[in-house]
Structure formats: C-alpha cells, structure tokens
Amino acid sequence: MEILKSMGERLCALRKEKHMRQADVAELLHVTQAHYQRVEKGKINIPTLTLCFLADYFGVTTDYLLGRTDER
C-alpha cells in the first residue's frame, strides 16, 4: 500500500532528524528492531495508538505521518 510506504519514509526521516537508530524507536514501542524495520519499509501496518504515540513523540500530526498533508 502506498500509505504504508509513505508513512515508513516519513518515520525514517523523522527518526534520522533526531539522530536515533531503529533500535531506539523499537525500544520506545516495545517491539523488536526487525518489527520496526518492517514498519519503516512499509511492509506492515501499526495500531492507531502507536500511530498517535509516534506523532506525539516526533511532534507531527497523524495526517502528516499518513501522507495526507505535508504540514507537520
């Protein structure tokens, strides 16, 4: 799905802006690094609460993460 790919790309960019590793974000989410890596690659969907947590953590809107707007 294009939405998952877009979300993954944006999560990757936001993570790199904060100088974080995939393992760091995985630890925050209490998932394995491999699981989070699949999120960034757009291979799997995430629960709504996780989406909200990540948006709050990175200081962006859920619509931004989902690629519905370019406004953070």
UniProtKB/TrEMBL annotation:
GO MF terms, alphabetically ordered: DNA binding
Residues covered by the HTH cro/C1-type domain: 13-65
InterPro entries to which the protein is assigned, alphabetical: Cro/C1-type_HTH, Lambda_DNA-bd_dom_sf
SMART domains registered for this protein in UniProt: HTH_XRE (SM00530)
Gene3D superfamilies: lambda repressor-like DNA-binding domains
Keywords: DNA-binding
Xref: Pfam families: HTH_3 (PF01381)
Entry protein name: Helix-turn-helix transcriptional regulator
